[in-house]
Amino acid sequence: MSPALRRMLAEARPLRRRLALSILLGAGSIAAGVGLMATAGYLISKSALQPPILSLGVAIGLVQLFGVSRAALRYLERLVSHDAAFRFLGRLRVSFFERLEPLVPGGLGSARMGDLLGRFVGDVETMQFLFLRALAPPLVALVACVGAVLAAAIVLPVAAAVLGAGLAVTALFAAAITRRATRASARHEARLRAELTSRVVEALATGPELVAFSRVDWELDAIDGIDRDLGRLDRRHGRIAALGEALVFFGSGLTLVAVLAVATSAVVGGRLGGVWLGMLALLALSSFEAVRPLPLAAQQSGAVASAAERLFELTDRAAPVSEPENPLPIPATGVLRLEDARLRYTPDLPWVLDGASFELRPGRRVALVGESGAGKTTIAGVLVRFLELDGGRATLDGHDLGAYASDDVRGLVALAGQDAHLFSTTIRENVRFARPGSSDEEIAAALGRAGVWDWVSSLPEGLDTYVGETGDQVSGGQRRRIALARAFLSGARFLILDEPTAQLDRATAEAILDDLFAAGTDDAGLLVITHDELMLDRFDAVLRLENGRVV
Amino acid sequence: MGPLDRRLLREAPAIRRFLYGAFALAALSALLVIVWAELIGRIVARVFLGGADLASVSRLLAALVAIAALRAGLGWALETSGQATSRRVRGRLRRRALKQVFRARPAGLGDLRTGEVATTVTSGLGALDPYFSRFLPQLVLAAVVSPAILVWVAFRDPVSAAIMAITLPLIPLFAVLIGKAAEERTKRRLGALSLMSAHFLDVVRGLATLRAYRRGRAQVETIERTSEQFREETMGTLRVAFLSALVLELASTMSIALIAAVIGIRLVNGSVELGPSFAVLVLAPELYLPLRAVAAQFHASADGLAAARRALELIDLAPAVIVAPRPQSAPDPSTAAIRLEEIDFAYAGRAGPVFSGFDCAIQPGERLLVAGGSGVGKTTLISLLLRFSDPQRGRITVGGIDLRELDPDGWRRRIAWLPQDPRLPAATVAEVLRFAAPDASEEELWAALEAADCRALVAGLPARLDTRVGEGGRQLSSGERRRIALARALVRRSSLLLLDEPTAHLDAAGAAQIRLALGRLEQKQTVVIASHDTSLLPLAERTIRLKEVAR
C-alpha cells in the first residue's frame, strides 16, 4: 500500500467501527447467498432419494431463512458503507481545506485555478471510493471466502482445498493483472483529467475572446485532443477491467469443474455420499460472488492512491509565513515600519524587494507609486503577513510583525487587494464578511464611502442583488468599489488599498479619494498603492518604489 | 427516469449501433447459459443416482470449461463495446454543449456558472461510463436472457416456470415504482453535487480575499455544513434507491427458495427427475442476475444520465444572436460606414435601458473616441459591434446591410478587439499573439509588438517569442499583460479595431506610449476607442460623449 494511501487511511480512523460493521454485514450477506444455493442443492438431492417429506422441513426452513437474510444484510451493508464513505468525504473536504488555507496566496506558486478545481473537487470526491470500491471488497471477500471454504471442509476437505485454491488463484490473478496494467497509467490519466478540466474552465473564462477572435472551434479541437488522449488510456483501462471480470467468470467455471471432478471421485470411492455432490457444486459456484468485485477494486485502489498522492503533494508545501508560538498581544495602534526589507519568491529569481524602508503612522496618508512589477503589491503582502521577508525587518509598534498572530495583524491592517474576489452571493454578503454581524446601515455607509451606494440603492433588489459568479454581473468599476467597501467596513487601523482607482473614470476616482480624505478625521493610517500620478498632491507623503527600494 | 432517453439516442447515433450488437451477444449468451445449466444437472444426476465415474462425465466437464470460456468472452465484448460507446457519446455531448454555451453567452457566462458547466461536461459526462458499459448491457441481457430462461424452464418444468413468471414481473414493476421516487432525489443530488463544487471553487478562488479579512478558517464550518447536507441528501436518495434493490433481491432469493422447496416436494412424489430439476435450480439465479444488476447499476448510472440531460439542456440554450439562414458576406468597415439607427438595448434583469433610441455613425477609416463615465454603455456599444448581442429595437448597419444579415464569424473576422480585462492563455508569446492571427509570420508578430511597445519586453525574455508567459511561466504585470493584448489585437489584420479602455492599468509612461502607438496606426483602419481617459482625446478625429447621446 502506498504511503499516501496509508496517510489517507489514518484520516479515516474515527470511522473504523462503521467500516468494520459494513464489512461484517457484507460478508454475512454473501455467506447467506452461498448458504441459500448450497442448502437448495442439498434439498433437491436429498428429495431425489424420496425420504419422508417431514425430514426435509429443516432444509426448507433454512432455505427461506438464508433467502431473507441475504437481502436484508445486503441492504444494511449498503447503507452503512455509503454513510461511512460520505462522512469520510466531509471530513476530507474540511481537513484538506484547512491544509490549503495557510498556503494561499503566498505558498501556491503558479498553481492554476483550474487545477485547484480539478484537484480539490475531483481528487477529494475520488476518496469516497477508498471505502466503497478499494478497501471494502477485498476484506468482505476474504471473510466470506474463508467462511465458504470452512463450510465445504465439513463436507469434503479435498473439495474445500480445491475451492480455496480456485478462489485464491482467481482473486489474486485477476486483481494482479488489473493492478499491474493500471498502476503505470493511473497517474498519467489523473493528470490528463485535471488538464481537461482546467482547459475547459480556462476556455469558459476566455469565452468572449474565443468568440471575438473566431477561435471557438480551434479551442474545442484542443479540448477534444486532450479527450482523445484520455480516451486511449480509458480504453486500455476499460479493456483490462473487463478482462479482469472475464477472468473471474472463467475462474469460477474452472473451479466448479474441478470441484465436481474431485467430488465425483470421492462419491465413486465411497468417501462422500452422492447427496452432497449437488450441494458442493452450487456452493462452489455461488461463492465466487465474493471475488467478482475484486478487479474493479484493484483498479480503483490505483486511482484512489494517485488522487491521494496529489492531494498530499499540494497540501504538504511549506506555509509561506510561520505563526509565533506565543504571539504578542496586538497593540491598539502603533507604527508600521519596513526596515531594509529584502524578499524574493524563489532563490533563483531576482530580488523583488531589495532594501526597501518606509513607515506608516496612524493618521498619515501615504501613496506608494512605481512601475508595474516594481514590488508594490509584494509590500502589501508583507504588511498583512501573506509573505515573510528574507532579510530586513517588518515591524509594528517596534516588534517584528512575525511576533504577532497573523490574523491579529490582519485585524489591524486591512488589504483591499488588486485582485479582490467577489463571491457569488449578494452585495450585502460580499461586504459584510469583512466584519460579520454588521448592520445594513453600516454596510450602506461603507458602500457610500466607496462611492457606490447610490448605484446599489437604485437596483431593484438593492443589497440583495446577486453579483454573479466572481462578480461578473456587475461592471469592473462597481466590482472594485464593492471590494473597497469591505476595507472601510472592516474598521482596521491601517488600510492598504492596492490600485483602488484602476478601471474607474476620473470623476469617480477623485470622488473616492475625496471620501477617503474627508473621512480622515479618525486616526487610521492609509497606504494607497497606485500608478495614477495626478492625485498625488493630496497625500501626506509619496513614496516611489524603484528596483526594490523606496527612493 | 426512462432507461433510454430518446433525445440522447437522437443526439448520439453510436448508441443505436451499440444496442444492435448487444442484442446479438445477449442472444448467444442466453443459449450458452441454458446449455451450461443442463450440463451441470446432467453431471450431478449421473454421478449421484446413475453411479457414473469420473471418466464417463469427463466429456461433459470439458464442455463446461469451454462454455465458461465462451461466456467470459461474451461478457468482455459486451462491456468493452459499451465503454467505446460511452467515450463517443461523452465527447460529442461535451463539444456540442460547450459550443452552444459560447454561442448563447458570447459576452461571458452570465447566469451560468463556470464550475457547474465545467463539472457537467467533464466529470459529469465521465459518469456516463457505468451507464453504457454496465447498465445498458445488463438491461439488454435482462430483456433477452431472462425471457429465454423463462421459456426454456416452462418447457422443462412448468411449475417452476409459473413461480418465476409470478415473481419476474414484480421486479421491473417495483423498479419502476421505486425508481420514480428516486428520480427526483437523484436530480437534487446532482444539483447538490455541482452546487458543492461551485461553492468550493468560489471559496478556493476567493481564499486570498477571505484570508485578508480573517475569514479563511470560518469557511471550514460552511464546507462542513454543505458536506453534511450533501451526505444527508444523498443518503436520503440511497435509502430509497437501495430499497428497490432490497425488494428485487428479496423477490429473487425467495423465489429460488420456493422453487427449491416445490421441486423437492415433487421429487419426493416422484413426479419430476433430478437432472432437469437441478438445471432449473442452476438457471433460477441466472434469471434474476441481469435484473438485479440493472437495479444495482441504476443509481451508479443515474449521475451520468442526469449530467447528459444537463448537457442536452446546454445544447438547447437559445443563441444570443440569430444567424440569418443565408448570411451575406460582411462589407469592409474600412470602406463602408457603420450606422447605429434608433437603437434600444437593455440587459435582461437589469434596471433601465442602456440605450434608448441611440443614433450614431462611424465613418470608414475614422478614429472615434467614445467617452463617458463608468456604466454609461461604452462596453455595451463595443459588444453590440462585436455582435455579442443584437439591439432589441433599431438596427446596426454596415455599408447599408443589417448586421443581422451577416454571418457573425465572418463579420468578427474583420474586427480586432482589446477587451477591458484581457485574459491571455498560459502559452508562449507567439501562441498568445497567433490566437488573433493564426498564420501571422514572425516579422508580423514583431511589428505588432513594436507597435504596442512590447518589443523590448519580449526581446529581453529568455526564449523571446517562445517564452511561456502567464500562469506557469513568466508572470506579467497588469500593464505588460495589457500591452501584449494590444499587440494581439494589432497583429490581426483587421479593418475595425475596437479598444476598450486601452490605458487602464498603465502608468503614466505606459499610457503615453500606448497613445503614441495608437497615433501611428495605419490610416485605413476604422478605430473605435471606448475610454474615460481624456488624455486620449487628441488622438481621436471625433469624440462622442455617451452620457448625453444615449439617454
Structural commentary:
The complex is a heterodimer of chains A (551) and B (551). With 551 residues, chain A is of the alpha/beta class. Chain A has helices spanning 3-11, 16-48, 57-100, 113-126, 128-155, 157-205, 207-212, 216-268, 277-287, 294-315, 376-383, 406-412, 427-432, 440-449, 453-458, 476-490, 506-518, and strands at 336-343, 353-360, 365-370, 391-396, 399-400, 413-416, 494-498, 525-529, 541-546, 549-550. In chain A, a hairpin with a 2-residue loop joins β9 (541-546) and β10. Chain B is 63% helix and 9% strand. In chain B, strands 6-9-10-3-11 form a five-stranded parallel sheet, sandwiched between helices. Chain B has a four-stranded antiparallel sheet with strand order 2-1-4-5, with no helix packed on it. In chain B, strands 7-8 form a two-stranded antiparallel sheet. In chain B, a hairpin with a 2-residue loop joins β4 and β5 (401-402). Chains A and B meet through α2, α3, α4, α6 and α7 of A and α2, α3, α4, α6 and α7 of B.
Q: Given the structure, what is the number of helices of chain A?
A: 17
> Which two protein chains have the largest interface (Cβ within 8 Å of the partner's Cβ), and how many residues from each?
A-B, 163 and 156 residues
Can you identify the CATH class of the largest domain in chain A? Mainly Alpha
**SSE order of chain A in H/E notation?**
HHHHHHHHHHEEEHEEHEHHHHEHEEE
The appropriate CATH architecture of the largest domain in chain A is Up-down Bundle
Indicate the CATH class of the largest domain in chain B.
Answer: Mainly Alpha
Rg on CA atoms of chain A, Å: 34 Å
Structural class of chain B: alpha/beta
CATH architecture of the largest domain in chain B: Up-down Bundle
How many individual domains of chain B? 2
Q: What series of H and E elements makes up the topology of chain B?
A: HHHHHHHHHEEEHEEHEEHHHEHEHEEH
